[in-house]
Write a structure and sequence with these properties.
alpha/beta; 13 helices; 49% helix
Length: 293
């Protein structure tokens, strides 16, 4: 039975959605007990291409990582689709390709094409009508009724709460199934989004940004449906890698940082290595038996 984002939200309130940077991270997230996972546009730009999150990666780049993740993990996957990567026809193609890849949900944002990180200054958003057109194009292209189309708004900082709430109401009327409220600074703002739109609200709890690290209990009381941790594990992996590289380079050995590493047995357990090995051994045994007959 296919797992949907709706199912996951029904099972956990708020639903914790954790970012995965690659297929192996998805396996680790599943084993940790998460019910849904996320693929960040910023993470793809940085980890897969060594680029900043400034709209330099597109649909084809994202699908590479989507397909790798979905090949090993059945959890519902939410994918960052930036501004949809083009006009209506391009947005429609984005939806079709994401559905085909087995993605559970996408979010499309209301920034201009020359987008910026949602927690940095200088963001510019398009007119409400243009964002509504993006949403309508996505909704019209959808063939799977369980596929969630989420509208992300970056308007809170440049336009204020009242204008942003008006925008989100229009986004929902245009067909958005949920709202991704970016760079929220106060729990009361989430309550306003939930009350005004009547759809599930996602809180982005990215570190080093404008949103405090609210707890799940705080978010539940603020009527938040989804709590997103987009790059937490990747940031920890990156710092660990820096420390290991530095130790090897400066000390001429990895001896002092081995305790930071996942063991071979732990890795093999995560990826089911011994199951694959048994199949190979069975194949070799069958060949040997055939040769002796």
């Amino acid at each position: 039975m296919r797992n949907t984002l709706h199912d996951a939200m029904a099972a956990e309130q708020p639903l914790q959605i954790v970012g995965v940077i690659n297929a192996y991270a998805a396996i680790q997230a599943r084993r940790a007990g998460f019910r849904a996972i996320y693929l960040s546009g910023s993470g793809i730009a940085t980890a897969s291409y060594g680029l900043p999150d400034l709209g330099m990666t597109g649909l084809t780049d994202v699908l590479v990582d989507v397909n790798r993740i979905k090949s090993v993990c059945e959890l519902p996957l939410l994918v960052d689709c930036d501004t949809g990567w083009g006009a209506a026809s391009s947005i429609a193609r984005t939806v079709r390709e994401m559905e085909r890849a087995g993605v559970a949900a996408i979010h499309i944002e209301d920034q201009v094409q020359e987008k910026r990180c949602g927690h940095l200054p200088g963001k510019q958003v398009v007119e409400t009508s243009e964002m509504c057109d993006r949403i309508k194009a996505a909704v019209d292209a959808r063939t799977d009724e369980d596929f969630v189309i989420m509208a992300r708004t970056d308007a809170l900082e440049p336009e204020g709460l009242s204008s942003t709430l008006d925008r989100c109401n229009d986004y929902v009327e245009s067909g958005a199934d949920a709202i991704f409220a970016e760079a929220v600074t106060d729990l009361g703002q989430y309550r306003e989004f939930a009350a005004r739109t009547g759809v599930p609200i996602l809180a982005n709890l990215t570190e080093f940004g404008k949103t405090p690290p609210f707890t799940t209990e705080q978010l539940r009381n603020a009527n938040v449906a989804m709590a997103l941790y987009p790059l937490s594990a990747f940031r920890a992996m990156s710092r660990a890698a820096e420390n290991v590289y530095a130790a090897i380079r400066n000390q001429g050995t990895q001896e002092d940082v081995v305790e930071l590493m996942q063991t071979r047995d732990e890795l093999y357990d995560n990826i089911g290595y011994h199951d694959y090995e048994r199949r190979i051994n069975d194949l070799f045994a069958a060949r040997e038996q055939q040769e002796t007959m």
